[in-house]
């Protein structure tokens, strides 16, 4: 930067636009104290969006549902926790340890990465997977989130003293010290950190990602329930029932079953990668390619998962690796499969009338929930719903799933009737909906 060239960024201007905490977080998180770094409005705005705004929104979420459920933070206790609660508490303890050790080495970048990853996990996994419990003012869920936010607020305080102090004043002064900067650094012990639970949740999340990938390639809507998913992954069947339920809910299937392999669900074809084979085997490459093409594709793929395989050409054995072949997998009709790093998940795409009805019910639930938001209703407001449809499938679904939809959208009445001025509508379902505060 050069003042003569006019490309200097004045720190006061940056702080005025993005906030002092945003600039502090960027400088501490983007590199070691002695490292040079590129500074710009866009890069600072990005770290605000990814970490600070996510942290703030998670705090706002906790405050909103604590107030809605008349929850008193002085009653918070980490008893009777679910597997997901225990994971969050364990990860918060891990965060306190990792940030403590990083800052002992003056490694603010590593400490910042630990904080950013935890904030993302807390918001995009724990909170999202526990929304229904927060809706019901579940004591264990509110206590767990309250505890996790306290830990992350304390370890973030040296980085972002102003936003963390504001959060502390809102959530913790009634039960703790009058300032986060006067509080004791969170205690940690390796005995309270569960690597097993961390690995189980990591596996759960990987399988969920495979399910999402499989859905994306199938074209089936996310809100359309499917009958079953078949899973092939080491240790998945040993997951606690609570975590298996998370997979079922995220992937939106009614059941999970074991899959010994994908042979029966996909057609596999192989061809040689001439570039990598040619670099190693030269003139022998065409013969090796012919041997690859003639091999049992499923058996060769299975062997390559262990790292390498052997093919024989003209009486000579050649070792090949995963990069030496191009694998093409085409799901058989009625199935979609996603695989990664030796783990696979297959979705049964067959739809029954009951499954279709459940999918319609979920679509209508989302339609009404969106209408609640645009109507300015409070999350705890009860509503009355009147609906009209000329589609037989829609009428059947809304009649048979009336109680479920009404409970989800907090409807005290659910009436089929004429709707002339709808609050929301769906052309595909031939549906018009009128909602009003009850």
UniProtKB/TrEMBL annotation:
CDD domains in alphabetical order: Anticodon_Ia_Ile_ABEc (cd07961)
InterPro entries, sorted: Anticodon_Ile_ABEc, Ile-tRNA-ligase_type2, M/V/L/I-tRNA-synth_anticd-bd, Rossmann-like_a/b/a_fold, tRNAsynth_Ia_anticodon-bd
Residues annotated as domain Methionyl/Valyl/Leucyl/Isoleucyl-tRNA synthetase anticodon-binding: 85-228
Keyword list, A-Z: Aminoacyl-tRNA synthetase, ATP-binding, Ligase, Nucleotide-binding, Protein biosynthesis
Gene3D superfamilies reported for this sequence: HUPs, Isoleucyl-tRNA Synthetase, Domain 1
Gene Ontology BP terms: isoleucyl-tRNA aminoacylation
Reactions the enzyme catalyzes: tRNA(Ile) + L-isoleucine + ATP = L-isoleucyl-tRNA(Ile) + AMP + diphosphate
One Pfam family from the record: Anticodon_1
An example molecular function term from Gene Ontology annotations: isoleucine-tRNA ligase activity
Annotated PANTHER family: ISOLEUCINE--TRNA LIGASE, CYTOPLASMIC, SOLEUCYL-TRNA SYNTHETASE
Protein name, UniProt field: Unannotated protein
Annotated source species: freshwater metagenome
């Amino acid at each position: 930067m050069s003042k003569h060239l006019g490309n200097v960024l004045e720190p006061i201007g940056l702080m005025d636009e993005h906030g002092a905490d945003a600039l502090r977080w960027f400088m501490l998180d983007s590199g070691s104290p002695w490292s040079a770094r590129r500074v710009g409005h866009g890069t600072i705005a990005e770290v605000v969006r990814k970490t600070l705004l996510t942290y703030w929104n998670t705090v706002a979420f906790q405050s909103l549902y604590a107030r809605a459920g008349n929850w008193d933070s002085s009653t918070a206790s980490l008893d009777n926790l679910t597997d997901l609660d225990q994971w969050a508490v364990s990860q918060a303890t891990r965060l306190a340890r990792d940030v403590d050790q990083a800052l002992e080495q003056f490694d603010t970048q590593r400490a910042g990465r630990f904080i950013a990853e935890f904030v993302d996990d807390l918001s995009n996994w724990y909170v999202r997977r526990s929304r229904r419990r927060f809706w019901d003012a579940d004591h264990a869920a509110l206590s767990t989130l309250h505890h996790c936010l306290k830990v992350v607020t304390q370890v973030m305080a040296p980085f972002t003293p102003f936003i963390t102090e504001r959060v502390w004043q809102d959530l913790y002064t009634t039960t703790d010290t009058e300032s986060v900067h006067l509080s004791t650094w969170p205690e940690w012990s390796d005995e309270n950190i569960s690597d097993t639970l961390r690995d189980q949740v990591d596996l759960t999340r990987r399988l969920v990602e495979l399910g999402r990938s499989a859905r994306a390639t199938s074209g089936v809507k996310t809100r359309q329930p499917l009958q079953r998913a078949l899973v092939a992954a080491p240790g998945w069947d040993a997951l606690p029932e609570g975590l298996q339920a998370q997979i079922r809910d995220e992937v939106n299937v009614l059941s999970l079953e074991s899959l010994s392999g994908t042979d029966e669900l996909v057609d596999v074809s192989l061809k040689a990668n001439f570039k990598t084979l040619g670099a190693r085997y030269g003139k022998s490459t065409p013969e090796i390619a012919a041997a690859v093409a003639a091999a049992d594709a499923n058996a060769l793929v299975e062997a390559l998962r262990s790292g390498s395989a052997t093919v024989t050409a003209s009486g000579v054995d050649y070792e090949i690796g995963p990069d030496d072949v191009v694998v093409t997998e085409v799901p058989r009709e009625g199935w979609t499969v996603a695989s990664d790093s030796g783990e696979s998940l297959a979705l049964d795409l067959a739809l029954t009338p009951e499954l279709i009805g459940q999918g319609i019910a979920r679509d209508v639930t989302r339609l009404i929930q969106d209408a609640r938001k645009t109507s300015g209703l409070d999350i705890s407001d009860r509503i009355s719903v009147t609906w009209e449809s000329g589609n037989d499938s829609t009428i059947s679904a809304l009649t048979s799933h009336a109680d479920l939809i009404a409970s989800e959208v907090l409807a005290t009445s659910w009436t089929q009737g004429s709707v002339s001025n709808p609050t929301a509508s769906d052309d595909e379902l031939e549906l018009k909906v009128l909602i009003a505060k009850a």
